[in-house]
Amino acid sequence: KRQPKATIVIFGATGDLAKRKLFPSIYNLYKKGKLSENFAVVGLARRPWTDEILRENVEQSIKQASFSSADEDLREFTSHFYYNSFDVTDDSTYDGLNKLMIDLEDKYQTEGNRLFYLAMAPNFFGLIAKKLKEYGLKESSGWTRLIIEKPFGTNLSSAKELNNEIREAFDEDQIYRIDHYLGKEMVQNIEVIRFANGIFEHLWNNQYISNIQITASETLGVEERARYYDESGAVRDMLQNHILQMVALLLMEPPIKLTTDEIRSEKIKVLRALRKIDSEKIDKYFVRGQYDSGEMNGEALPSYREEDEQLANSTTETYVAGKLVIDNYRWAGVPIYVRTGKRMAKKTIDITIQFKDLPMNLYYKSEKERHPNLLSIKIQPDEGITLSINANKAGAGSLAEPVQLSLNNNDVPGINTPEAYEKLLYDCTIGDATNFTHWDEVALSWEFVDPILETWAEQQPNFPNYKSGSMGPKEADELLERDGNHWWDV
Ligand code: BG6
């Protein structure tokens, strides 16, 4: 087991992400011995906190995170945390940070390894990267790496601008663009399920697969994030990053080696083969939605526009469904249907592969009773795979009915899958960028979604158009019906 030594600097240490994900993840890594005793964490934000206040917050956040042991003495752990009140635009604070880091490196013997984590408003990402370089914070005796949270730009041109700014200060191999879906156990499993099983991979192409469906539905609404979300919408928030990353993993060719470069290069090829849809055809391929009021578990829910004053006239989509087309030899003719949205009937991330029917099948009385083979990769909340096959229906002569072979990770004793953030933080400390997005992936993803957003910006949507607690607008069903398909219930 490698036990990296490092000083971790968190920009945005008073924020939600630090509290909900980063502090508990660092703690878990430490507990599991995946971070050595030689570590320090510097929290930065505008608020005038002290080391003591940060440490109390870290302690609380660990106790609240259900996956960590709650009541032990955390003081030894939190004593490694330091706070600096920080104004990203004020030069003197970078000097102060550098001095603090040099002291901490001496005190904790971290060998000069520095991990900068940008977990705050994206408008300062470029500036911070530049200042880190300018003030010598990258000049340590160990490695320096930068983790950047999304959103990485709001379209291709702003993403390019941001990337150029960051690249002036950091090399591509020092930049870790985080997409937390790539840290999910079952997302990482896609590759293994495919490339370690002949029974799947031999059939993994347009000869045997009818269509692929990805659903990432959420029950939550916009929560307290109206300002961010209304500028973003479902396409930027979920499709451009998380969903396209899953698409790339599902459709890529087997890499020639399990190295970062080889895997990324196969993913990039998929994104290059993703057909860009012309503006006049966008409506044939994509459906947008915004949630109306509704009900869930007997609780009345407000519409998106009622959630916050500033949303009263919003035309931001809280739902998107699409039909993706891949123009390459393996996938020509296989539609990839994706959908994601807020305030849907359930929280689920699921991938379903529908296999083609046999040319002749005698075990059914009617078409309606005929069930295709389905492979479902369950990412959340269940983690596992289900394979739907046909078998003899008991007592019914030679008729078939579907039965399911299921593996549910949650039922396997001893498997306690680590949080996505925990894995990704660890990967970064050992220098493994495989599960982070390369710039080319980011750029190609924006190239794909930009025309959708541009076209929609010109047309007035008919919002709201789906009820809270439903599976989205009816147009999303029609999208598949036109091809003779339907969404599988997930
Ligand atoms: C984030 C989005 O990236 O992913 C959120 O900004 C969304 O809007 C979240 O809720 C979903 O993540 P998960 O892991 O809960 O599926």
What is the fold's blueprint, element by element?
Layout: E1 6-11, H1 16-31, E2 39-45, H2 51-64, H3 75-78, E3 81-85, H4 91-108, E4 114-118, H5 125-134, E5 144-148, H6 156-169, E6 175-177, H7 185-195, H8 198-201, E7 209-217, H9 226-251, H10 260-273, H11 282-285, E8 286-289, E9 291-296, E10 299-301, E11 319-324, E12 336-341, E13 348-355, E14 374-380, E15 384-392, E16 400-408, H12 420-429, H13 439-458, E17 466-468, H14 474-481
Parallel strand pairs: 1-2, 1-4, 2-3, 4-5, 5-6, 7-12, 9-17
Antiparallel strand pairs: 7-13, 8-11, 9-10, 11-12, 13-14, 14-15, 15-16
Helix pairs in contact: 1-2, 1-12, 5-6, 6-13, 9-10, 9-13, 10-13
The site of 6-O-phosphono-beta-D-glucopyranose has 3 residues, from loops.
Structural write-up:
This protein has 490 residues and is of the alpha/beta class. The protein is built from 14 helices and 17 strands. It has helices spanning 16-31, 51-64, 75-78, 91-108, 125-134, 156-169, 185-195, 198-201, 226-251, 260-273, 282-285, 420-429, 439-458, 474-481; strands spanning 6-11, 39-45, 81-85, 114-118, 144-148, 175-177, 209-217, 286-289, 291-296, 299-301, 319-324, 336-341, 348-355, 374-380, 384-392, 400-408, 466-468. The longest helix has 26 residues, at 226-251. It starts with 5 loop residues before the first strand and ends in a 9-residue tail after the last helix. The relative contact order is 0.13. Bound molecules: 6-O-phosphono-beta-D-glucopyranose (BG6). 6-O-phosphono-beta-D-glucopyranose binds next to loops. Residues 218, 237, 349 line the site of 6-O-phosphono-beta-D-glucopyranose.
